[in-house]
Amino acid sequence: MAQHLTDKDIENIVELLDYWPLDQKLTWELLCKAIELQLEFVPAPTRQTLQKYVRIKNAYDQCKKPKSTQVKSTPTQKLPASLKIAQTRIEALEVKNARLEKENAMLLEQFVVWQYNAHKYGLSIAKLNEPMSKKSSD
Fold it and tell me: Mind listing the UniProt keywords for this protein, alphabetically (predicted)?
């Protein structure tokens, strides 16, 4: 049976991918093992389950993409430990930033579609801006 992931689970998995070491190979199998060990999912979600979630799939693809370009283009030089840590952190943040920019662009595209459909079907700005109703537990 496929495991259902919560929004928090997806966020944690995407965060794991954001900080995946650039010098470490990334595969779905290694990601599943990392999820099981670092996020303590037992059993770990399968590759098929992970690929169903667009955010995870995009983060995985984004993480795979820079590896082929960044690792080869980075000159091999001896760095002090503090600079190596800083370099690793900067690289991870650059990958995370690229992923967030892509996610933002996708959300903006979705908004344009919703905006068009709202106009097409005659929904007013006032209707669209109505606050969500709260569930009553009575």
Answer: Coiled coil
